[in-house]
Write a structure and sequence with these properties.
heterotrimer; A mainly alpha (304); B mainly alpha (299); C alpha+beta (373); A: 304 residues; mainly alpha; MetI-like fold; 2 domains; 14 helices; 0% strand; C: 373 residues; alpha+beta; OB fold (Dihydrolipoamide Acetyltransferase, E2P); six-stranded mixed beta sheet; five-stranded antiparallel beta sheet; 8 helices; 20 strands; 21% helix; 34% strand
């Protein structure tokens, strides 16, 4: 009787093992299906645009869409150096200028923010003073304000102050994008430095400035690098500020890309090439600071 | 006498210093606050770009006018439908994909790295990419594939019935990686012991998920909701790049309407009313959700 | 190279009074230990000397000069932090050399190298100079922290529980090394700890700090054998001192402690002025090693009956917990003698080492009131 019972138990165990194994297999299959579905959704547009940028004009507008075609770089040529033979485009393309504009605006915006924000972030992290939290929250609250709420009145002010469509004006306005971000995220990095390390340096004979320069700043170097890269990307990606506060002279790449789709003609191929050129540098930058992206996008709320 | 001297010197020597150090940032803050307040002031005026020299205080006239127009209420409704849809879809899609990506398997690092691509591309460019995918005839990739299933072609962005859905798809494409990455971070920082205890107790997978995982992820859910709700309430770029509020105002959110009030009808006063109301909505939700988030962190 | 004087120093954090009117002097070249529980205000005291925390009231003088108004870098003190506070981005060499790059105590590069090497050799970390703090063990980090403080010639050397994060073995070893090195420090040392062994082993004098107040300052022996109050008696010794409360009574020219059922003679009490305390509640205190435990009742001397609660064997020692009425006593004994649970035993107290405290205030009834603070 006991023997039978034992055998019964053993077969039961085997069954359970089998069940577990098949369950693991099943979840594995479900995972593959689920991830394939999601990543098809996530990557198709990018791959499609990449393909489109390499198609000639006829292939681009082909119906049904063409998946096999002879790649050409004529779109890239057209938007960078210009192509005389090309049916639609002028001799001197504007795209390089837009690229340069964006580069100028984004770089200077980040430099100004870094200059204004680093010490403020340190001050908000380390010193205690009145209204500190109010000041910090006011910065944060503009992350959650509709952009036009500030830009529209700013447009009126800029018109009066002759800052409209100037690089200086845009770099100042772009501070709204980068400065609150930089202050909040850097503040978090500074707060992570153990207080005692800074106190030890004070006792070792340094003024607060010496401590900041020789201890705190070197310790948040990776944080600063991440914040600089992300601010640059945010500035690079911006559209609405430049659209409203700028015009021909300062037009950035985002508006330039939009310009390929006009009322009278749609230059899909060139738009695709411009998109690829616009996106590649920032993706390269982003992969370097991959570790900090979530932290950056949540204003430091998720540390990791 | 010495005591008095001492008391005077007792104070930390850098009393004014923090303010001095924050001064550049404080000036920047004033630079933000000044136009903001100016904007609120404009809501009470008849400020029009064509007659800009003659700004008159008209009290609540703009507000009364706008509240009595169906256009405003429709925009408010569209704004909320859009925002709530994307938040719900991004939360559920984000959690599902995060769970699939939270277990180690070959290639998982690469897939996680790929996730940042949609977030780093300018939203306006993403919208344009999707405009290509969603082209109304079989020229569009999506319609082409759907044609094999005998569906379509659908006009997507060109049809007032599907335009909002199209925008939701675009928004989900751009921002669900944000939710996925935050959920992955949350799933990875879950404590091990409760799960081991639950397994010892013989709890089923679904029960563990509902009673353990979801509550433990509550702070992440709040955080994602905070960022995604506010950002989708004030969505602008992807609509401007695709439908510009059309067709037939089917995608005219508050932010989009305010833009056209200002730059098509030149009416800054009315535009600012739209923006101010949108700002209040964003502010209230942001305040509530940040409070909730902070309270969750306290626990 | 300087004495340190606390003149009526207090520290408030909002409503909380962390340090209450602290007045004492640390002599030049003295190794002075502040002993107290966590939260007693030890670290606050150190940080006030270092200038990290400003004193709310009173004056701190180093070498006769008030320093309240000086920022930390101007005070010429060195400090070893409990967490070591090493600079994670600098090598061991640069950590130790760090103070010399400050404008306050700049030196030539050769001098720096000489000093760093000298200190590193002394601490036995000369092989580690190229490493980063993250590549060091706890003990090595501790030595680097010590080296960074020692490399200068500060007027005062502050140490905040420098050994508390080491494991027991390393802690004992470092304690010995600190003791042997103290001559070469050549400076006044203020050392805080919660470990009474450290305090006893290292200190020229010990100050007991409790809830922001200095309880007693004395040599280790004096504090151990003549605690001024119950708090002090409790903070020294492991297992801690045993206490038994009762009423002070005076019968037939003899003082005794009356508990529920016992009359314990207090022959060690000779002071006649205790008569004013007769009838008051007092607490008898005796250390575990000053009690003898017997299985038989002796005829010619007084013994306290007790029952064995539990016996713990700790290798060379054994701790026997016994119950006397409601009180629990711990007795240090040898492991050879074994007692059964609930066995009746008889305790005889070493009268010379028995203490008596007034229950209400906790103050000792044996020490001249002038001696305790």
């Amino acid at each position: 009787m006991f023997r039978i019972r034992k055998i019964f138990d053993e077969t039961m165990e085997q069954d359970v093992d089998e069940m577990k194994k098949s369950k693991i297999k099943l979840t594995g299959i479900l995972r593959v299906i689920g991830l394939s579905a999601y990543f098809t959704f996530a990557l198709t547009p990018i791959i499609w645009i990449l393909m489109m940028s390499l198609k000639n004009h006829n292939d681009v507008i082909a119906t049904p869409p063409k998946f096999i075609f002879t790649p050409t770089i004529e779109n890239y040529k057209a938007i960078t150096v210009g192509m005389k033979s090309y049916a639609f485009e002028s001799v001197r393309p504007d795209f390089p200028k837009y690229f340069l504009n964006t580069f100028i605006i984004a770089s200077f915006t980040v430099i100004v923010s870094l200059f204004l924000g680093t010490i403020a972030a340190y001050s908000l992290a380390r010193f205690s003073f009145r209204f500190k939290e109010d000041i910090a929250f006011t910065f944060l609250s503009f992350r959650f304000a509709p952009e036009l709420m500030v830009i529209l009145p700013l447009y009126v002010v800029f018109q009066k102050m002759h800052l409209y469509d100037t690089f200086v004006g845009l770099i100042l306005a772009y501070q709204l994008i980068t400065l609150p971000f930089l202050i909040w995220v850097l503040r978090g990095f500074f707060e992570e430095i153990p207080r005692e390390i800074e106190q030890a340096a004070r006792v070792d004979g340094y003024t607060w400035w010496g401590v900041f320069r020789r201890i705190s700043l070197p310790l948040v170097k990776p944080g600063i690098a991440a914040v600089v890269v992300l601010s640059f990307i945010f500035a690079w990606n911006n559209f609405i500020f430049a659209m409203i506060l700028g015009s021909e002279r300062t037009q950035p790449i985002t508006l330039g890309i939009l310009g390929f789709i006009g009322y009278e003609r749609v230059l899909w191929g060139q738009m695709a090439a411009a998109t690829i050129i616009c996106v590649i540098p920032e993706l390269l930058l982003a992969f370097f600071v991959q570790k900090y992206i979530i932290r950056g996008l949540t204003f430091g709320a998720v540390k990791g | 006498m010495t005591n008095q001297l001492n008391n005077k010197f007792d104070r930390p020597p850098q009393r004014g210093l923090p303010y001095l150090l924050s001064l550049p940032a404080l000036l920047a803050l004033i630079g933000i606050l000044y136009p903001f307040i100016l904007g609120v002031y404009y809501t009470f005026t008849n400020y029009n770009l064509t007659t800009s020299d003659n700004i008159k205080w008209i009290g609540l006239k703009n507000y009364i006018e706008i509240f009595s127009e169906t256009e405003f209420w429709k925009a408010l409704g569209i704004t909320f439908i859009f925002a709530l849809s994307v938040v719900i879809i991004e939360l559920s899609l984000g959690l599902s994909v995060a769970i699939l990506l939270s277990h180690p398997f070959p290639g998982v690092q690469l897939l996680r790295a790929l996730l940042i691509i949609p977030m780093m591309i300018p939203p306006i460019v993403s919208a344009l990419m999707w405009k290509v995918i969603l082209l109304p005839t079989n020229q569009g990739v999506l319609n082409y594939f759907l044609s094999f299933l005998g569906i379509g072609p659908i006009a997507w962005l060109g049809d007032s019935g599907t335009a909002l859905i199209s925008l939701i798809i675009i928004d989900v494409w751009i921002y669900s990686p944000f939710a996925i990455l935050i959920f992955i971070a949350g799933l990875q920082s879950l404590p091990k012991e409760p799960y081991e205890a639950a397994r010892v107790d013989g709890a089923s997978g679904w029960f563990v998920f509902r009673k353990l995982t979801l509550p433990l992820l509550a702070p992440n859910i709040v955080l994602i909701t905070l960022f995604r709700l506010i950002d989708s309430l004030k969505v602008f770029d992807i609509i401007y790049a695709t439908t510009k509020g059309g067709p037939a105002s089917a995608t005219a959110t508050l932010h989009i309407v305010s833009y056209f009030e200002a730059f098509r009808w030149n009416n800054i006063g009315r535009s600012m009313v739209y923006l101010f109301i949108l700002w209040i909505l964003c502010f209230v939700f942001a305040k509530f959700l940040t409070k909730l988030w902070n309270r969750m962190l306290m626990r | 190279m300087a004495n340190v004087v606390f003149d009526n120093v207090s520290k408030n954090y909002d409503d909380l009074r962390a340090i209450d009117r602290m007045s004492f002097e640390i002599y030049d070249m003295e190794f002075f230990v502040i002993l107290g529980q966590s939260g007693a205000g030890k670290t606050t005291t150190l940080k006030m000397v270092a200038g990290i925390e400003p004193a709310s009231e009173g004056t701190i003088l180093i070498g006769g000069n008030p320093i309240n108004h000086l920022t930390p870098e101007k005070r010429n003190v060195a400090m070893v932090f409990e967490s070591y506070a090493l600079y994670p981005h600098l090598s061991v060499y640069d950590n130790i050399a760090f103070p010399f790059h400050a404008p306050e105590n700049r030196k030539s590069n050769e001098d720096i190298e000489h000093s760093v090497k000298h200190i590193a050799c002394m601490l036995g970390i000369d092989q580690l100079l190229g490493r980063k703090p993250s590549e060091l063990s706890g003990g090595q980090r501790q030595r680097v922290a010590l080296g960074r403080a020692l490399v200068r010639r500060p007027s005062v050397f502050l140490m905040d529980e420098p050994l508390s994060h080491l494991d027991a073995k390393l802690r004992n070893q470092m304690r010995k090394e600190l003791k042997s090195m103290r001559k070469s420090f050549g400076t006044t040392i203020l050392y805080v700890t919660h470990d009474y062994n450290e305090a006893m082993a290292l200190g020229d004098r010990i100050a007991i700090l409790h809830k922001g107040k200095i309880q007693q300052i004395d040599t280790p022996d004096d504090i151990y054998y003549h605690p001024g109050n119950i708090v002090i008696a409790q903070s020294l010794g492991d297992p801690p001192m045993n206490f038994l409360s009762g009423e002070l009574s005076f019968l037939e020219e003899r003082f005794s402690l009356r508990t529920k059922n016992l009359f314990i003679p207090l022959d060690f009490v000779r002071r006649q002025d205790l008569k004013s305390h007769i009838g008051k509640s007092v607490t008898l205190g005796i250390r575990p090693n000053h009690i003898q435990i017997n299985t038989d009742k002796s005829v010619n001397s007084f013994q306290i009956p007790a029952t064995v609660f539990v016996q713990e064997y700790l290798g060379d020692d054994s701790i026997i917990s016994v119950k006397i009425e409601d009180a629990m006593f711990m007795i240090l004994s040898t492991p050879e003698k074994r007692y059964a649970i609930d066995e009746n035993v008889f305790l005889s107290l070493n009268q010379e080492h028995t203490h008596l405290f007034l229950s209400e205030t906790g103050e000792s009834l044996q020490i001249d009131s002038g001696k305790s603070i």
